């Protein structure tokens, strides 16, 4: 086993194809791909300050370390990586990688990160940036805090728990998604997705949940949500007011109240959708 401590590495491929190393309190300065093609790494209290630090790697642990904003595109084609208590300030981190575990990680500039990846576990991860998780699959997230648009576009097999997502167009083009006990805010949530389920969630959306196949909502609240469910098949138990519902294709919708129901006979077969209002009456257009 190689042990490296309190060293500064510079130049391209500084530790190329390193295997079985423990790296402590080190800095990787200018020089691309310092650990490319490496495996079985244990890295602690270290800093990466240039591009492509962990490409084509296998079985890596990184703890209490930093990827500077200049370490862009830092982790691509890597399989089996765990990061704990880290700051990933660089954009475009994680691409075409698998076996990713992030715990207590902050990603303040997560633009175009976690693309086309699989087998992902996120716990207490804070994300700020657009297009996080695009075309990725087998995702388990808990305590996720996202500020950034288009999260999980094209994602599959996703479970999210106890999270906060402030994201326009979240969960577009997705398949097999379940979200529990979370707060979601943003326009046009869930378009063109199928087999999506929200349980005990509070959601605020403009024209949300449209063009969806098999949308299920259990014990959810819709805050300031209008023109919902257009051209969607839906089974929704809503424990709040809905501003307006427009042209669902089929299913059942129950709400405390609905400001306006828009059903256009030339667009949808209105007999295929049952809408129940528990308090008062809804205006039907």
Describe this structure in words.
0% of the residues lie in helices and 50% in strands. The protein is mainly beta. The radius of gyration is 22 Å and the shape is elongated. It starts with a strand and ends with a strand.
The count of β-strands is 27
Number of helices: 0
Q: Would you identify the regions where 5 or more consecutive residues have pLDDT less than 50? A: none
The major β-sheet equals: 10 strands, parallel, barrel
Query: What would you call the shape?
Result: elongated
Number of domains: 2
Order of helices and strands: EEEEEEEEEEEEEEEEEEEEEEEEEEE
Structural class: mainly beta
How many angstroms separate the termini? 73 Å
Sheet-strand content, in percent, reads over 45%
What is the C-alpha radius of gyration, as a whole number of Å?
22 Å
Estimate the mean pLDDT confidence: 96
């Amino acid at each position: 086993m190689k042990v490296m401590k309190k060293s500064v590495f510079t130049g391209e491929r500084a530790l190329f194809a390193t295997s079985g190393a423990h790296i402590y309190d080190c800095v990787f300065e200018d020089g691309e791909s310092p650990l490319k093609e490496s495996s079985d790494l244990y890295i602690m209290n270290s800093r990466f300050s240039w591009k492509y630090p962990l490409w084509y790697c296998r079985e890596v642990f990184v703890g209490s370390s930093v990827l500077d904003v200049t370490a862009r595109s830092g982790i691509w084609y890597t399989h089996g990586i765990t990061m704990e208590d880290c700051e990933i300030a660089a954009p475009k981190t994680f691409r075409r990688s698998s076996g990713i575990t992030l715990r207590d990680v902050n990603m303040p500039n997560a633009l175009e990160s976690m693309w086309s990846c699989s087998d992902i576990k996120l716990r207490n991860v804070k994300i700020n940036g657009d297009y996080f998780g695009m075309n990725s699959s087998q995702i388990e997230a808990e305590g996720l805090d996202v500020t950034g648009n288009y999260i999980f576009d094209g994602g599959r097999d996703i479970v999210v728990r106890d999270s906060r997502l402030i994201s326009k167009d979240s969960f577009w083009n997705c398949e097999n998604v379940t979200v529990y006990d979370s707060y979601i805010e943003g326009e046009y949530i869930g378009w063109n997705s199928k087999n999506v389920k929200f349980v005990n969630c509070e959601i605020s959306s403009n024209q949300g949940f449209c063009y969806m196949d098999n949308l299920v909502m259990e014990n959810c609240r819709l805050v300031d949500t209008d023109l919902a469910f257009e051209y969607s098949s839906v089974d929704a138990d809503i424990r709040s007011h809905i501003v307006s519902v427009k042209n669902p294709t089929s299913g059942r919708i129950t709400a405390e109240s609905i400001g306006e129901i828009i059903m256009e006979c030339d667009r949808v077969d209105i007999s295929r959708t049952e809408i129940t209002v528990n308090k008062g009456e809804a205006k039907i257009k």
